[in-house]
Structure formats: C-alpha cells, structure tokens
Write a structure and sequence with these properties.
About 80% of the residues lie in helices and about 0% in strands. It is an all-alpha fold. Helix 1 packs antiparallel against helix 2.
Amino acid sequence: MIISIIWWSRIAYYKLKVATIVLTIHVVLVLLTTRVHYSIDVIAAVIVTLWMDIYIGRYVKYFDVLFSWIFKGI
C-alpha cells in the first residue's frame, strides 16, 4: 500500500493518495491491535517498499510496455 501512495503522489492523484493513506493507517492499526504482526514487521515493510521504489522504479516503464502488449493481445 505504501508503494501505491508513492505512485499516486508522482502522478498527482490526490484523492486516491489520501484514500490509500487512510486505508494504510487502518490496516496497520488492525494488524498491530490483533497482534497478527509485530511493530518491526510494519517498519520492515516500509523499508522494503522504499528500497523497491528506488531500485525497481526505473524499470516500471518496461513492465508497463510488456503488460500493455499482453492485454492488447499483440
């Protein structure tokens, strides 16, 4: 969900960004209060997401072209 927030910010979809932030906060609170995950799991998820954004973000355009071909049937 955090990667969605980053990408909604980049393409200037303010309403979806705010909705995703609210849903992310809700999910984190539910996970922590029901003791499904520990606090370190949530922190690790944020770190991994930011790492993915740095290293995978430059390849998004290639995946976009690939999936466009698949869904267009080319």
